[in-house]
Amino acid sequence: MSIFPSPSVTRLLQVLALALVAAAPCVHAETSEQILDQYRTQAGTAPDPSRGQQFFTSKHDHEWSCSSCHGDKPVQTGKHVVTGKSIGPLAPAFNQERFTNTAKVEKWFRRNCNDVVGRECTPAEKADVISWLLTLK
Amino acid sequence: MSNRSNAAIHAASACLAFASAALSSVALAEEERNIHSVPLLPLYQQECSACHIAYQPGMLPAGSWQRIVNNLKQHYGVNASLDEDTVKELEQWLTAQADRAPAMPVPPEGHAARSWLAFKLFEVETGHPPEDRITRSSWFWGIHQRMPSAMWRQLENQKAIKSISNCDTCHTTADKGNFSKHNVRAPAALKP
Questions:
Q1: How would you label B2-22 residue by residue, b for 16+ Cβ within 10 Å and e otherwise?
Q2: Quick check: B120 pLDDT over 70?
Q3: Cα distance between residue B173 and residue B176, in whole Å
Q4: Each residue of A65-114: pLDDT tens digit?
Q5: Contact B151/B186 with Cβ under 8 angstroms?
Q6: Is B100 an 8 Å CB contact of chain A?
Q7: Nearest-CA distance A115 → chain B (Å)
Q8: CA dist A31 to A3, A35, A38, Å?
């Protein structure tokens, strides 16, 4: 008997390995640093935490700033400016669920940037904000 | 046993029967006058309760839900947009469970009567409450008619809309779909 597995077993192992590789992005939760990296790459420039803070706490010719709901320093529970519902801290050091799912991050940037800036945010703006949030410890 | 005590027993049991019938009809009336609650679709809970309590789908007619989920880019002044597939799934579930608010055919008394009439007329004409708002439905004002007048003044004040739409300010079990009056606790700020 050969020490190598039979062709059918080899084929099965190949399929299993492929399935694992394919499933990896779905089951593997991202980290906030990885998400920051994605935006950094898209922007093509280095993120600037102080610019991120400025962007987050200022109004952009619209009614609200990011701070209106999240607070000036989002290390504590915020409060929805319209409904009053409490919003968990945004800084990853104070809320480990934050910035761990690209689709969720994109959904909220899309919604909230439209309310705060009147358009979608650029990858550079997103990277700036996340880089600032990561400095909050 | 004497005829007299027999009569007393008959009277007592009739009384009991009447009382229990009355009690069950009170219970029934309370049941009928409450929101028909359903377990919430997890997707609905996940997507809609981030910014506000997940309202029971029975609180609005199907047409209102359709307009709401198809106009999430302008959702009562906030961008709450979702992807197309999510919107479709939510719309299907919400419209299937819609329109189960308690019937409030009789005008309420006191402070609630004016709002009830205005919203009722609107509903009769259009089939939905103004701006598709739960808080501008006639049933909402009918069901809250026994609230003290000072609270009504708060509710009628447009600036207080934040607190009206937050069912859980007073209904402590609203997030579980339980709006029983036994679980109502008015916060100090609203007390007359």
A1: eeeeeeeeeeeeeeeeeeeee
A2: yes
A3: 6
A4: 999 999 999 999 999 998 888 999 999 999 999 999 999 999 999 999 99
A5: yes
A6: no
A7: 6
A8: 42, 6, 11
Structure confidence at residue B13 (pLDDT)? 46
For A118, which residue in chain B has the nearest alpha carbon? B79
Q: Taking the CA atoms of chain B, what radius of gyration do you get in angstroms?
A: 21
- Give the separation between CA A52 and CA A50, rounded to whole angstroms: 5
Q: Compute the 3-state secondary structure of chain A and give helix, strand, coil in percent, each to the nearest 5.
A: 55, 5, 40
CATH superfamily, region A30-135: Cytochrome c-like domain (1.10.760.10)
A84/B79 touch (CB, cutoff 8 Å), yes or no = no
Can you tell me the ipTM of this complex?
0.73
Give the minimum alpha-carbon distance from B105 to chain A in angstroms, rounded to a whole number.
30
Quickly state the pLDDT bin for B104 (edges 50, 70, 90).
confident
- Put simply, the answer to whether B79 touches A82 (Cβ < 8 Å) is no
Predicted confidence at residue B176, as pLDDT, reads: 86
Longest dimension (CA), chain B: 80
Tell me whether residues B51 and A80 touch, CB distance under 8 A: yes
Strands A86-87, A78-79: pairing is antiparallel
Residue in the block written with tokens 């009439």: B117
When comparing pLDDT for B37 and B188, which is higher?
B37
Give tens-digit pLDDT for B133-164.
999 999 998 888 888 777 777 766 655 556 67
Whether residues A85 and B76 touch (CB distance < 8 A) is answered with: no
Question: Chain-centre distance of CA B164, in angstroms?
Answer: 12
Ordered by start, the domain boundaries in chain A are: 30-135
Cα atoms found within 13 Å of the Cα of residue B6, Cβ hemisphere only = 3
Q: Looking at per-residue confidence, does B177 or B110 come out higher?
A: B177
